[in-house]
Here is the input.
Amino acid sequence: MICPLYNFQVQNVLYGPQKLTREETINLLAERQKQLVEGIDIFEEIKVRRISKEEIEGLRSSFFSLPPDTAITANMFVLEKTVTAEDGHDYQADAAMRNIVLAMRLLKGGYVSGTSVFYIPVAEKDKNPLEVSPIEWSWEQGRKLESRGFRYSLSFDEVVDLKKLVGKIQSVDFAKRRSLNLACKRFQRAYEEVDFEDQLIDFIIAFEALFLKGEKAKSSQGETIAVACSVMLGKNDEERDQVKRYLREAYSIRNCIVHGSDYRKPKIDKEYEMSEFVPKIEDYLRESMKELLD
Here is the structure.
């Protein structure tokens, strides 16, 4: 089973000063290149790897109807797990792959997307590529995000942190932690929005789920969120004050949007465009959700 990852890449580069010899560097990069082909283990036999040319040709030429908006392209990466025919549709692995995409988004910014899971017979891989076709697929409504820019680049150094995040998400009982579940849904939904105003609405709903947990509407809700988040994320008074100012402004703008009122450009230490301001709010939400996963 494979889940194509859109707008995603793994960088085979070395960052910062290195204490390796030239030969050691060449060997390390070669080993990493091999991993990109064979797959990097992420969670319980689920790997991320570069899709092969044969698989690309097989999926493109398949007579099997692919999900809407599915495009298999060169240099694409996929999540992959081998399952037996007796297992049938592996719903747990299917859900885990979607949780890996969530973990990628929580790890850092970048518009990675993965909405389709294909089941391909392994025995057919050695056949003519034109004969390779999926026997089943599952699909979630979503939008491929190539047009949004901000290509998601995962480095080898970040794989350890990604694995930890996936493990935390997999261990959460979302049926019992309904507030966190709603926050995750809204965080994910924002990735499908094109307009920054719509993204901000989703982010504030997620903040309300995390910090208000179903409380009835009050005029002080925005302040409650701003203070609670600043205490959680701020390491000192200066950082806490900055978090509060950003979230107060975000809540005020969100209220203007949902009530059909005009609003001025966000202004904290300077005047911001929404394209600058909303990603900052996203970062605060991302860090809050990671804290609450523990």
The radius of gyration is 21 Å. The chain has nine helices and eight strands.
